[in-house]
Structures are given as structure tokens and as C-alpha cells.
Hints:
2 copies of one chain form a homodimer. In chain A, the strands form 2 sheets. Chain A has a 3-stranded mixed sheet, sandwiched between helices. In chain A, strand 3 (101-105) and strand 4 form a beta hairpin. Chain A has 2 domains: 10-92, Winged helix-like DNA-binding domain superfamily/Winged helix DNA-binding domain (Arc Repressor Mutant, subunit A, Orthogonal Bundle), CATH 1.10.10; 101-150, 2-Layer Sandwich (Dna Ligase, domain 1), CATH 3.30.1490. In chain A, helix 3 packs across helix 4. The first copy, chain A, is globular, with a radius of gyration of 18 Å. Chain A is built from 6 helices and 5 strands; from the N terminus they run ααααββββαβα. Chain A is α+β, with helices and mostly antiparallel strands. In chain A, 41% of the residues lie in helices and 20% in strands. The interface between A and B is large, with 46 and 41 residues. Strand 5 (133-144) of chain A pairs antiparallel with strand 5 of chain B. The structure holds a DNA duplex (30 and 30 nucleotides).
Amino acid sequence: MLTGQCMYTSHSLKAELNERGWRLTPQREIILTAFRNLPKGQHLSAEDLRELLSQQGNPISLSTIYRNIKLMSHMGILRELEFAEGHKHYELNQPYPNHHHHLICVKCNQTIEFKSDSVLKIGKTEAQQAGFHLLDCQLTIHALCPPCHGLA
Amino acid sequence: MLTGQCMYTSHSLKAELNERGWRLTPQREIILTAFRNLPKGQHLSAEDLRELLSQQGNPISLSTIYRNIKLMSHMGILRELEFAEGHKHYELNQPYPNHHHHLICVKCNQTIEFKSDSVLKIGKTEAQQAGFHLLDCQLTIHALCPPCHGLA
DNA sequence: ATCAAAGTTTACAGTAATTCTCAATAAAAA
DNA sequence: TTTTTATTGAGAATTACTGTAAACTTTGAT
């Protein structure tokens, strides 16, 4: 089974945000990257994350952190861990739970998701050939849907 | 659209525009030329393009730039690249033999272009299946390059 | 129960990328 | 040429977002 081997990247995050009419911001990218670079098995509270990012030279306000870890949890990108202590911890939801590609009408933004093992295979092969370690690959198809194509 | 052999020239641009009841304006010609003269592998945001044209002595208003890069993307002349920066980038959408995809290191941003007939085929099939008119399909692979993977 | 501190959410004013409005202009057709 | 109508530039409008600060809400201790 090939599906489910990919990691979230800024690109896949952007794709999923855009699909819902939301935006990829520097802050969201930084937060995702922080979780991706976290050693396996580690997890962070909101306050932990604020400190970590501050130390890295990327200070992000606590409210933005709260807003976005909540958002990413709802999107399935992060998992909320409930420890008895009363404050939540978060970690990346690995592997990428619902890996898919996008067919988008550039006029009306209608978006169709589709899965493809072939694409993933091609991605693996290309990455390997260049000696890269694959994280994610996404096919984005830009097109015009029937109604939009019909009109001039 | 993706299968032609030639690059767009002002002449073919005019033909395609007129065919749809649109006009060739100096601004559109300038924008197309700017993209044609862009070094291989480069791409521009709307703001980049405005600055470039300004420096060249061809200032074009930002709204006109936005209007026309959108139009040209819909015509299949430009392709919209979604690198995760919060704003879109554009490059010429080159027809089949030069049509390419991107392999990007998420850490150092090293980018490798590669070609793939299989991806193009998958894109065509998916678009057809949904009854969409294909404009562009791009596989974006995110990975770690050897040096970046070696380091923690 | 009551209180303080920690943890989380909300209100609000300002920001950035993009789109829209509209009077003036200029391609293309007649 | 003249007419028709798409297009332009300037600035306003739009929209999701952010940081600051104030307002809740738990939780644990008294």
C-alpha cells in the first residue's frame, strides 16, 4: 500500500487551506515546520511552541498559536493529546492521513480531489533518482470545468 | 494547449485574443515578452513583475498586471505556481516537450526541474474524466536533498 | 465554596494580496 | 473615419489574517 507515506509540507498545507478558502500565512508555515522538525515522539503545548519559536527567532503571538493549532487539529494535520494535567499537547498526525491530489477550475475554483498511487510512485522514483528523501508529492491540475469552459 | 510545438509570440497572442473577442494591447505584449525573456527556472509574482517592468521603463499598473496574468493563465499561456509563500508566482506554460515539474528541498529550497510524460498522461486522464478542459498540470515533489537530509 | 494563577478565547484595529469601480482611452470593426 | 466596446490606471473595496489586550474558564489550593 503506497498511500499514507507522505508527510505534511507547506505545499500540502497550502493546498488544503485554499481548498477551504483559507490562506497559508508565514505563521502557519512556521508552526507546521516546527512540528515537522520535532523529534519523533515529542509533543508541545501552546506555551512550549511559543517559546520554541521565540528561541528560533520566529516569535508568534500566543493567540495566533492557539488559533492555528486548533485549526490544524480540525484539519487533521495535528493531533490533540489530552494529558491529565489539564493542558493539551500537540504533535503531527503522522502519516499524512488522507493523501490526495487536486483538479481545480481556475475560473470558479471548483475543486475535485483524487487519489493516485501512480503519482506517488512517480514522485518516489524522481526523488530517489536525485538522491532526495521524499516528504510529499502532489499533482495539481489546473483546468476549466464544463460550465466555465462553455462561457467565453 | 499543452501539445503545441511553438512558444507564444505577439502574433499568435493577438490571434488567440481576437478569436475570443479580446484585444492585443501594448501592456499584454509587454507582459508576455517579460515572461519570454525570463531566465530558465525563474518565475515572478505580480509585484515582481510590476517592479521588473517599471525598471525596464514600461510601468504597468498593478491592477492591469493582475487582470492579465489571470487572463493568460486561463488561456493556458502562463502557469500559476503555488510555492508556499502566500502569493502566487507565474512562469510561461511551455508546451509538451518542455513541460516540466518541480522537485524542491524543503530545507534549502534547492529546486530541480524534471519532465514526465506519465504525469502529463495522468493529468489529461483526470481532467477528461471530470469533463474539464486541461490548462496545466504540475507535480510538485517536496523532499530533503542529500546534504539537508544528512544533517539533523 | 472561594480565590488566584494558568490556560484559552475573543474583540478590535491594522495589514497584505487581490479584486472591483469607474471615468478616460484606444483597439478593432464597420 | 467613425463607432463600438474592451481595456487601462488610480484608488477604493474586499477578505482572511495577525498582534495586542482584555475577557473568559479551568484547575488546584485554601
